[in-house]
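re the bet — no i am not wrong, look at it urself. input seq straight from the record:
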Amino acid sequence: MTDLSHIRNFSIVAHIDHGKSTLADRLIQETGTVKDRDMQAQMLDTMDIERERGITIKANTVRIDYTADNGEAYVLNLIDTPGHVDFAYEVSRSMRAVEGSLLVVDSSQGVEAQTLANVYQAIDAGHEIVPILNKIDLPASDCDRVAEQIEDVIGIDATGAIQVSAKTGQGIHETLEAIVNDLPAPTGERDAPLKAMLVDSWYDAYLGVIVLVRIMDGVLRKGDRVRMMSNDSTHLVERIGVFRPEMDKIDELGPGEIGFLTASIKQVRDTKVGDTITNEKNGTTEPLPGFAPSQPVVFCGLFPVDSAEFEDLREAISKLALNDASFSYEMETSAALGFGFRCGFLGLLHLEVIRDRIEREYNIELITTAPSVIYHIHMRNGTVTDLHNPADMPDMTHVDHLEEPRIKATILVPDEYLGDVLKLCQERRGIQMDLTYAGTRAMAVYDLPLNEVVFDFYDRLKSVTKGYASFDYHLTDYRQDNLVKLSILVNEEPVDALSMMVHRDRAEARGRAMVEKLKELIPRHMFKIPIQAAIGGKVIARETLSAMRKDVTAKCYGGDMTRKKKLLEKQKKGKKKMRQFGKVDIPQEAFISALKLDG
């Protein structure tokens, strides 16, 4: 049992690539939590894909024992959080489980968009914040400038910011001392009824669902019967433990502590993140405030390249959904692609990660349809429906108007690229809300339509600013706009996988680009193939793929011209008939390339 005043719970927050996971490694190493021979880079990033891309996707936790300079022994519970905007939900719930944050800023790059977003989440959660300037071993590091920037942009005092190199280990001891001296201890009543917050849960093949909890009040012991307050289910606690980063079994968790429990829970769906866990008898009556559930933002269809693998895909998706509460899916069929799933994601990186995991862990080749967002359709009879897939668009005569989701985007960019960024946002129907300066960097705040952002906005932003811009966004509201469904017809048959929602002013340019691209991608057949882009019944762009032609007159030497004419007429009739009944095979690559249109 640890005294409350000797516990410190904190998370590490920063922009992508500012060194959160490396700092966590050094803290683990400095305190001897993991033996040197077992150490590896990014200790807390356990998924292959996290290591490969060098990003953190799941917030991970570790318990560190540390003896401070004053001779007292402390227990430090660290949560390493993701930096990418798509996983902001992971960050927000980790914040609620701890009392303080280490704000890591790269001393050569300064404050970035995601630094701001994450730090505001920490301030909202009432955290004490310790600023840390990382990467001081780099020649481009400028601590005074960055400390000044932290004060200007974020508004927290950075005069005593700790200068650290997480790579070489310099400044790590000072960081540990600051955690002990500057961050507050947790509060909680040991004798009160049990009140524990469910921070995260994931599935383990041997133990069932493992639940990560933060104890607010009371004590959780092995053998207790506990109740989840959201769904009123009861469970018998089989084991309790903490992560050091391996699982370590202990007998009880007291107030202020973070640990895990297992209780033969079969499905992750039974454990709602943010739920309150209490004793079955004499439990608390007041649940904790919990978190707002995560809302999927981007939808797209996932189809197996080989339709025989549909069942394997169903199994893979249901297994991934077990461990990822923010990922939703439902079955759908497409005339062009067969059976598949319509899946909801928090953003494009989330989509890529899930897709890569299915392809790698389950060995299934996938086709991904164009990402789309949820539109609100206001019908003439007064009802409002949600549109997830452009192919399901009802007849426009019954539709009064459409509303699309808008976001507030914050872009931080060096001065010399500002013009290109403003032009890009203007092209994407953005409305400028604010433009300020922090040193030599501009901070532009834009109101943008989400469907313009999900496609390839991030890639374009990185290319026009040579990678120096940083970008963060959150959903604001739905707004009416002049949107239409653009359909693509091949040989007069609509291809539902290629239909998309576009703004009416852009529809013609988008449709023309699409048909020109498809003309190059679809192989020639024995008959002429028209490729058209249409809005409703009106064709706005067309290309014709000419037919391959067999020389039917080759064996006519000399002789009368009528013989040749007769053969050519016969060929013409055959082609007409073929075009009537012929089937156009659109290769898989054509779908994938056509969807990467703006490249």
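see?? Residues 4-182 form a domain with the Rossmann fold fold (CATH 3.40.50.300). told u. also The CA atoms of residues 434 and 445 lie 5 Å apart. so pay up
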